[in-house]
Fold each of these.
Amino acid sequence: MKITTCTVSILTVTLLMSSVAMAAERPSVSNNAARITALDAEVTTIKSDIATIELTPGPKGDKGDIGLTGDAGANGIDGSLGAPGTNGADGAQGVQGEVGPQGEVGPEGNTQYFTNQINDLTTLVIQLKARLINQDFDQDGYSPAELDCNDADNTIYPTALEVLEDGIDNDCDGVDGDFIDLDDDGYDSNALLTVDIDCDDSNPNINPGMNEIVGDGIDNDCNKSTTDNGEIEYKIGDTGPAGGIIFFLQEDIEHGMEVAPVDSSAGTTWGCGTTNLPSARGTNVGDGYQNTLNINHGCEGSGRAALIASEFQYNGTTDWYLPSRDELFHIQAAYRILQRETEFVGEYWSSSHVGCTTFGFTTCYAATWIVEPPQGTSTSTKTTQTHKVRAVRHF
């Protein structure tokens, strides 16, 4: 049974009214008790009926007005920080601005530190060079500082015997010393080996052993002292104006150089201590005079070789000086021509200064000429050693 909500309300009112009427009719107490029991049973039945009633919703009422807005709720807790976004693309480069005015020049910096560093580095390099130049790598007894011209070959050093026709400067004197005779006339055309040179090694009829033919315009005997017109001037080995021995002649054969016939000193040091003399390093013929002047000007004290030579006097002449390295070579050659080699033997000082090296201490060197007939070699010797002095002069 389907009963609407309205039906239930009517049944309830009816029931109540029936109960009231029944109460009003109360005939007696025993009747009332019976009525009450009957009423309770009826109520129970009604309740059972009500429980089985299927309620059907009534029609939907009209929509009511919107209620008032409630108060705002409290703020919620902040959410977690989101991940960073990607960088946007770079914008285009703006236009370059104008160059600003130049600032004032700052105060000058302190360069002393860098100067000291450069000086220290320079000193280190000099010491390293000195160490290398004083090393005898091929163990032949001579280092580059001692004029070893090939410190990788122990058969080449300043006092080695020159081997002819080997194409090697065995004794480090600057020349090979090979005997060259292209025209097979028995005379050498290597001017540095001997004074008796063949002046035309393509013609066997021109050599020092030929007689000069007057008027033919040819130097038949390779001797500039015998002119083609028959006149004879100075020649190598002649006695010079001061009584010395002529060992070198210029082209005009009227001027040249002579060597004193005796030593100026049997043994002295080169001198000058640790003074480096770049102005006295000439080695050629003609350099001895200027070398001697520069040595005596740059050094102090007595007993040095250059001073002894410049103070030498012979036959009233006082213009003598210490010969250069190459001048000593020609002196020996002149004595060889005269076959008087025993008059010029030993170790002689030249005026040619080699230089100084510094490695803990300073050592200076000068060129000497060692004469052991028939050989003569140049070497570099410490200036503190003792050697002979032979003076020369030019005329």
Amino acid sequence: MGATASDLFFELANQYYVAGRAAAIAGLAPVYGNLLHHAVEMYLKAAIARTLSLHALKGIGHQLESLWRAFKKAEGTARLEQFDATITALEAFEEIRYPDKALQTGILSDVMGPSQHGSGILVGGSSQRKPPTYRVRVAEVDQLVIERLWPALGVRDGFVPTTLVHLTKDGRRAIRLRNRELQAHFRRARKRRPRVP
């Protein structure tokens, strides 16, 4: 059986997720937020592609909040509302994909984990007013991805997507560094394993 659209979205999501965490570790603000936005977008599209056509998904585009609403409708909203603020924070990074906003008002962005907190960068702007701030907590994205999106896409506790198995040493560092959710993911699997007498 060949790959589906859902499979390919999932593959891309995993790559963006590792790249976003690596960018955060490197202190690359606002790029880490853009990459994590793309990761969550691709995870949501992977889940939604099971019921919507590619044409319908293209119509939604990069609108993370629209994808999130469709995902919540399909999955049920139980325990998903806690991530609404994370989705909103990620959605803001879509505004600064292109430099026009930074040129008009400037932007302030800082990395909120996994290895740095609050290392700000001011980009562009000629306005006298304080520029808008763009930030998302990497730990919240980790929680969203590992606790909610991976299970929705069939990843069981203790397992990782194939993409992550084949990472280089640096890639594994990027995914593991201060990733409490990934550690918990493996702990839950160990607790469920039957004990051999």
Amino acid sequence: MVLNFGGVPNIFGKEPFNLTELNIKRTPGEPTTDYNEGTIILNTADNKLYIALKVETTAITSPDLGWWKFDESSGNAADSSGSGHTLTNQSSATYAPGKYNNAASLDPGYFSTTDTAFDVSNYTFECWVKFDSLPNADEGFLDLVGVSGVYNRFYVTATKVLTFRAGGGGAAAALVEYNWSDLATGVWTHLAVSVDETNTIAKIYVNSELVASETYNTAPDFSTVTTKLGHRLAPIDALMDDAKFWTSIRSRDEINLDMTGQAGLNLTWGTIDIVA
């Protein structure tokens, strides 16, 4: 059997629908009129399989708390989110060609800001990284430190364990870990961590795939937060690009959208000719 696809816009006079709602609502041989959205139907009259296909586009939105593109050539890193959270260049971090335009080169430097705006219950942090050398200590992507030693940290260890750690202020440290065995130098990788204090769940994503998810004990409120990008016990010997901070829990699909920058694939109604 040979299946030939040909687009036929609005063949049933219906608006396209979201592909996730696709289901079969008619039996083979029924008339090709008055179909519900999401129909797959074999019409024996013309020997065609009618399919209603549409992936709705999803708007790409900007992060609401911080978006650091690192497109500068020197100095501090501007915030493109519109929130005004410019990062201060610490220890003479430099810039180099990156994933998109320029990127921050983080050995020996890093970037930081101190702002109560980062004292949030739920958040997602994303960035692109490319290692120049493999880590030889706990090298951080995001470090949030508050009063009384309260902290949230997202970093990689010398043994290539990708880690989220929360603790301080009298709370026991909690870990979410992923054995990043294929960590390599010279390769751009998209990393993300989502922290849901409301439900005490933290998740780690690599190239938009969920690789670790654990519950953890919440730490006390930060109050005043020092936010560091590119530093834990040591700066990461890597490039960082397109770092984003959201005050919401991003889903896997949203993280993938952030990573790819693509707003979805549009399809229309169509037919498949069935050729014996």
Amino acid sequence: MPISANEIPQAVSARLKATWPKSSSVRVAKYYLPHRNRFLQLTPLNMSLSAPQGLVMTAGKVHIPFKSELLSTLSSFRFERPPHLLGILATKKEDARTYAEFTRKACEQIGIHFELRLVGDAGADDDDDEGGGIDVEEAILEANDEVGVDGIMVYYPIYGGRQDQYLQSVVSPMKDVEGLNHQFLFNLYHKSVRPPLFLNKANTQI
């Protein structure tokens, strides 16, 4: 049976690789395999086979079928107007605002109307001492009842921990585009139960 570099413990493999210059393809090392009572001759070439190789999938390839299906659905007779996605931003953190702007650009590319509402810290003046998220619950409740809003996306973290988990479940499952409402978590472990509104207005919802 041939000896494979895969038989070398990963820790040993890593140390051996670290000793080789990247440009080297000649240097040889030997590793003793006690269970074979033989030495395995190693080079940078066969050492590259000692660990499983991963497959890199880029978003540019993965998103294509989903985008095509979404564009097809949006162009159907089901929609009398472009869907309205409401983003709720309650923090001044730059990464959250950057994420919101990415959402806006993505929506513009496929014909979804995106609106960003600033509440809490994000909507407060610089000299305002009120804490982040102070108006978030009220903003979510209003959006739940707003007929012109088809989907809601809240940018977390706001408070962090259990308080953010509570806010995730305040978002109506009918408009929760991220699926963070506890109803969706429940459905992972039980027979899927769709809210009655899904059945009554399936032809008007996203």
